[in-house]
Specification:
The complex is a heterodimer. By secondary structure, chain A is α/β, with parallel strands linked by helices. Chain A is built from eight helices and ten strands. Chain A folds into two domains: 177 residues, P-loop containing nucleotide triphosphate hydrolases (Rossmann fold); 67 residues. In chain A, 35% of the residues lie in helices and 26% in strands. Chain B is mainly alpha-helical. Chain B folds into two domains: 30 residues; 227 residues, MetI-like (MetI-like fold, Orthogonal Bundle), CATH 1.10.3720. Classes of the chains: A alpha/beta, B mainly alpha.
C-alpha cells in the first residue's frame, strides 16, 4: 500500500502498551489516521488519553508496541531530522540567546550557522520577535518564549511540525493571541502540522481536521472536518457552524463520561 | 544597604571592636602569650612584612593551594564525568567514593607526609585530596540534572549522545561545578595548611606552628590575618569567574554566599 499522493504521515494500527505494577496498560489502541501535505490536523482529548504518547512515538522518542507510522513513505523508527517538535513548555536553553536557541537544530544537525542565520532572523520576524534575537530566555514572557520554541521547530525546514499542547501553560488571553499568531504563520508557510490539545475550541479554531481521542485505551473516535474559511478571526467562536462542531466533538466525551460514571 | 553612610558605620564598628579589644587587654593585664593587644599584632605584621618572612612563606602556601586545587579539580571533573556517563564506572567506583567521602581527609595528612616527604609535593597532594570530593560529587549530580524535556528535545533533533553531553548536560552542570569549585578552593587551602602543620620546611602553616613553639602569639595573629586575606582573595577569584560563566543562571543574582550549601565534608 503505497502512500497516497500528497500524504505526509500515515499512522497504521498503532498501539502502545505499558507494563505497570498492576499488569499491562493499553495506552493507545489501534490508532489509524493520515495527514495530507500542508494540512493542519488537531488531536483533541482529555488529559491521560495518550495523545502525548502518540506524539512521542511520532517524534521517534518512544517505540510503538504494534503498528507504526510512515513519514513521507519511510517508517519512523527513531528521531528524524525532518520532524520539528514543539513541546508544552518552551524548553529553551538559558545559556543561549534567542537567536542561538533558534539555531540549536542547526548546530545539532550541522547545517551551517552562517548560512542559516538569515533564515533564523526572517523566521523570528515572522513570529514577531524582531529585535529580540540577542535577548536571553529569562528576559521574555511565556508567550514570547513559546514563539522562540516554534521558530526553533521550523528552522531546519522539517517536513512536519508536531506540537504538544504548545499553549497549554499560557493564560487564556495570551493563548488566544498565540492561536491567531499560529494561524498566520501557518497560512504563510503551509507546513504540515499535527497539533495536540485538550481544548476543543482551540482545535476547531486552528485545524482543517480534528481527530477526537478518548482515553483508556486511547482511540480515535471521530474525525471532524472543519470547513470554516480562513483566515479565521476570534469572533468565529460565536458562529453557529463553530458551535455545531464543538458540540459534536464534546458529545464524544460526554457519552464516554456517562458510560464510565 | 551599600550606602556611603552604612559603609562608614561598618568601618566605625571595626575600629570600635579593635579599640575595645585593646582596652580590655590593657585593663585586665592579659599576658601577651595568651592574647596580644591588636597593636602588638599589627606591629608583628609590620615587622614580618619588612623582614620578608611572611611574603616568602605566603608564596609557598599559595603555590601549594593553587596546585592542589588544580590537580584535585581536574581529577574530580574527569572522574565525576566518567561516573555520570558510564553505569559501569559508577557501579565499580561508587563504593570507594562513598567510603572516602565519609572519611575526614585531613586525617590522612600524616600518611601523606610519610609518603611524599616534607616538601611541596605532600602539601599539593593533601590539598588536592581535600579539594577533590566536593567537586566530584557536584560534577556527578550536575551532569545528571538535565531535565527530561530538554533531553527529549535534543533526541527529537537526532542529536548524538556526545552532542547531548556538550550542548546540554555540561552547561546544565556548570552551576553545580562552579559551586563545587568554590568549596574546593577553600578546602585546598585547609588541606595545604594541615599538611604544613604535620611536617613542612616552609609555608604559613609551618610559620604558625613554629611561632606557637616560641609562644609568639602576636605573630600568629599576623599570619592568621594573612591567611584570611589569602582565603578571601582565592574565593573572590572563583566568584568572579562564576559570575562570568553563569551570567545566564538567575539563581546567581540572588545568592551571594549560597554556593557553599552544595559542599562536602573535610
Amino acid at each position: 500500500m503505497a502512500g497516497t499522493a500528497g500524504e505526509m504521515i500515515a499512522v497504521k494500527r498503532l498501539s502502545k502498551q505499558y507494563a505497570t505494577s498492576r499488569g499491562p496498560l493499553l495506552a493507545l489502541d489501534g490508532i489509524d489516521f493520515s495527514v495530507a501535505e500542508g494540512e493542519f490536523v488537531a488531536v483533541v482529548g482529555p488529559s491521560g488519553c495518550g495523545k502525548s504518547t502518540l506524539l512521542k512515538i511520532l517524534a521517534g522518542l518512544t517505540a510503538a508496541s504494534q503498528g507504526g507510522a510512515d513519514l513521507r513513505g519511510t517508517a519512523i523508527s527513531g528521531p528524524r531530522r525532518d520532524i520539528g517538535v514543539v513541546f508544552q513548555s518552551p524548553v529553551l536553553f538559558p545559556w543561549r540567546s534567542v537567536l542561538d536557541n533558534v539555531l540549536l537544530p542547526v548546530d545539532v544537525q550541522r547545517l551551517g550557522r552562517e548560512r542559516m542565520r538569515p533564515r533564523a532572523l526572517e523566521l523570528l520576524a515572522l513570529v514577531g520577535l524582531e529585535g529580540f534575537e540577542h535577548r536571553y530566555p529569562w528576559e521574555l514572557s511565556g508567550g514570547m518564549q513559546q514563539r522562540v520554541a516554534i521558530t526553533r521547530g521550523l528552522i531546519h525546514d522539517p517536513a512536519m511540525l508536531l506540537m504538544d499542547e504548545p499553549f497549554g501553560a499560557l493564560d487564556a488571553m495570551t493563548r488566544e493571541s498565540m492561536n491567531l499568531e499560529l494561524q498566520r504563520i501557518w497560512l504563510e508557510r503551509r507546513k504540515t502540522v499535527l497539533f495536540i490539545t485538550h481544548s476543543i475550541a482551540e482545535a476547531v479554531f486552528l485545524a482543517d481536521r480534528v481527530l477526537v481521542m478518548t482515553p483508556r485505551p486511547g482511540r480515535i473516535m471521530d474525525a471532524v472536518s472543519v470547513a470554516l474559511p480562513r483566515p479565521r478571526s476570534l469572533d468565529i467562536g460565536a458562529s453557529v457552524e463553530f458551535g455545531t462542531l464543538v458540540r459534536r466533538i464534546r458529545g464524544h466525551f460526554n457519552a464516554k463520561a456517562e458510560l464510565g460514571g | 544597604m551599600k550606602s556611603p553612610r552604612n559603609m562608614a558605620i561598618r568601618v566605625l564598628l571595626l575600629l570600635l571592636s579593635l579599640a575595645l579589644w585593646e582596652a580590655a587587654v590593657r585593663a585586665f593585664d592579659v599576658p601577651a602569650y595568651i592574647l596580644p593587644a591588636p597593636s602588638r599584632a599589627i606591629m608583628a605584621l609590620y615587622r614580618g612584612a619588612v623582614s620578608g618572612v611572611y611574603i616568602d612563606n605566603f608564596w609557598v602556601t599559595l603555590a601549594e593551594t593553587l596546585l592542589g586545587f588544580v590537580l584535585g579539580s581536574l581529577l574530580a571533573f574527569v572522574l565525576g564525568t566518567a561516573v555520570a556517563v558510564s553505569r559501569a564506572v559508577e557501579y565499580f567506583l561508587y563504593p570507594y567514593i562513598v567510603m572516602f567521602q565519609s572519611m575526614p581527609k585531613v586525617a590522612l595528612a600524616p600518611l601523606i607526609i610519610v609518603w611524599f616527604g616534607l616538601g611541596l609535593t605532600s602539601k599539593v597532594v593533601s590539598a588536592a585530596l581535600v579539594a577533590f570530593f566536593p567537586l566530584l560529587v557536584n560534577t556527578i549530580v550536575g551532569l545528571r540534572s538535565a531535565d527530561e524535556d530538554h533531553v527529549d528535545l535534543m533526541r527529537s533533533l537526532a542529536a548524538t549522545e556526545s552532542q547531548i553531553f556538550w550542548m546540554l548536560r555540561l552547561p546544565t552542570a556548570l552551576p553545580f561545578i562552579m559551586a563545587g569549585l568554590e568549596v574546593a578552593m577553600v578546602f585546598s587551602l585547609i588541606g595545604a595548611i594541615v599538611a604544613e602543620f604535620v611536617g613542612a620546611e616552609s609555608g604559613l602553616g609551618m610559620l604558625i606552628q613554629s611561632m606557637n613553639f616560641s609562644m609568639d602569639v602576636a605573630g600568629q595573629f599576623a599570619v592568621l590575618f594573612i591567611l584570611a586575606v589569602m582565603g578571601l582573595g582565592l574565593n573572590g577569584a572563583i566568584v568572579w569567574i562564576r559570575r562570568r560563566v553563569l551570567f545566564w543562571d538567575p539563581s546567581q543574582k540572588s545568592t551571594e554566599i549560597g554556593a557553599s550549601a552544595k559542599g562536602g565534608k573535610l
